[in-house]
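Structure ticket #2291
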Amino acid sequence: MATFLYKLGRLAFRRRHFVALIWVALLTLAGVGAASAPAAGNTSFSVPGTEAQKAFDLLEQRFPGMSADGATARVVFKAPGGEKMTDNANKAAVEKTVEELRSGSEVVSVADPYTGHAVSGNGSIAYASVKYEVSGMELKDSSRDALKDAAQHARDAGLTVEVGGDALNATPETGSSEIIGIGIAAVVLVITFGSLLAAGFPLLTAIIGVGIGVSTITALASALDLGSTTSTLASMIGLAVGIDYALFIVSRYRAELAEGREREEAAGRAVGTAGSAVVFAGLTVVIALVGLSVVNIPMLTKMGIAAAGTVAIAVLIALTLIPALLGYAGRRIKPMGEKSKLLGGGRTPRKPGRPNMGTRWASFVVRRPIAVLLLGVIGLGAAAIPAASLELGLPDDGSQPTSTTQRRAYDLLSEGFGPGFNGPLMVVVDAKDSAHPKKAFTKVGDEIKGLKDVVTVTPAVPNKAGDTATITVVPKSKPSSTTTEDLVHAIRDKGADISRKTDSQILVTGSTAMNIDVSQKLNDALLPYLALVVGLAFLLLIVVFRSVLVPLKAALGFLLSVLAALGAVVAVFQWGWLSGLMNVEQTGPVMSMMPIFMVGVVFGLAMDYEVFLVTRMREAYVHGEKPSQAVVTGFRHGARVVTAAAVIMIAVFSGFIGSSEAMVKMIGFGLATAVFFDAFIVRMAVVPAVLALLGRRAWWLPKWLDRALPNVDVEGEGLRTLSAADGKDADPDGERALVRV
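Resolution: structure written out below.
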């Protein structure tokens, strides 16, 4: 591996015009494809295998044109103080709004509040239900604008009007967060390299990689049903790893220059050593993202595969375009330890030969490994304690900030009709095989009325064939509460008994039931996903490090950091700790996608840091250093780079904490916290402490397994006696050797 990548790096350095032309051509081709591709809406959402999805599919068959999974909106009206919604002027304004809503191109139906008994008991609040033919994720912007305009016209008439439901749930804009992240990354890179030019390379190549990846996704969006969320995830992950991988190789290139090598030779060795780490780090990220397919949610699978493709592009760019750009830069890229003149280069160091911070820290850990290990593990364990109280759910309008119209509509409906009115359940009764369908419909309604936490059960509404009916159930509790979840399970349990007695099938669906089913599906998939990702990465790291204990330590450390991060998320977003500082207006269950999303993203980034840092230690060890000294050597060369990469990622993710979207805020906080725990506590403290305690045993591998494993030579042992094919450059000892793969 190392020798092949060494030759690739030198080839890219020499043929830099050709390499640059290829990547410019690919970027242009992807851009043209994206510009000429047909416009695609957001991807459709389905969750195969869940009861709620089965009910939606059944309704599509038995109630054609009903659009069971179509978007919904509730336009909520409140009369001015002292007035009622039944007053003539207010009633006229509402009826005019209803007519305006019915004219929408994607609208299926609009329920008049006065004919549909949708006026509160005290007459102060009313609502109109709007049903669309497509889901909220596929709704056109023009339909959303028409909905907002209709609400504004009613406000102009003197009413308080708010709009709830999923019709206004547009994808959050993240452009400003990305710009902030890139800006912070630029500052960190300049500080790390002491050179504006060297700092610009990782940013430039990361942007090129993301441009190719996102443009390709846009070009294929219509054909593959890819939504805007797919490109958002791909750009976030691609930007993260693209900067990291380029950072690793440029840093190693400058280190090779500092050892006195010629620039082409330094580029080859940088790609052969740091590039090997990049390849295997990239593989772990790809495994983690492609592994999302085990959840069996098509949208999540597509997002994972698309993001994995962007990561693969980032790896290829780091291995080829970075050495090509280094060739263009020439002597303007300074060796490690030297700064450009613009940033104070040329000055004599205050204390020549003084060990850097990484060396001093690693030496301290090696001297006191037990204390550092206990402190790190106990600290992370304490942070993980709240995770034992983790409650999962999907956000609804009640979790929105009070400044949004969705949240205000939610509060008005709770005020006028009760909290459960925001999350009605739809019970579908399939009586096709029943001898008495009408009796089955009545029986189901009567049984549900006797359950706890039920406020209203509407009469059954059968289809034209009379073999299927829908029943609306309004709970007492809010949609995201555990009481409502218990009610859904109670209806399903009761439905099993009724099915046997009436020869019918009872299914519970609706947005609330779908959220519950999705949360359960994600929760059930977490352990298989974790086993798959960690298991495959464990096998991969055995090949990389030729050790059993080092990969085991890496996996256990990752689990500890993820649990600690989940604990922090629970403490802030579920318990309310520091909620004012984080501007969390409403506490509640943690987003059900959060654990599995955190595992996938953080595992990939954590293994980046693990591979780059520990391969430096492994390299020093196989070159003859003692285990404890190898730990110090690894930190001397790698700690600064890993620290910079982690700070960049934390800054990028932290930029999302300021979002008004509760889900985006939670993701940003969780990922930033997880990266902090993993990079600075696990990789910088726990890892060197464990390796110091294990000594030579850390690199133990059974002989039979050593013979069976392929020798990928990530640490670059094959480069030790390697010279250039033209014989101009020599190794550090001045010996010449033939280039071999």
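Closing remark: The CA atoms of residues 490 and 516 lie 13 Å apart.
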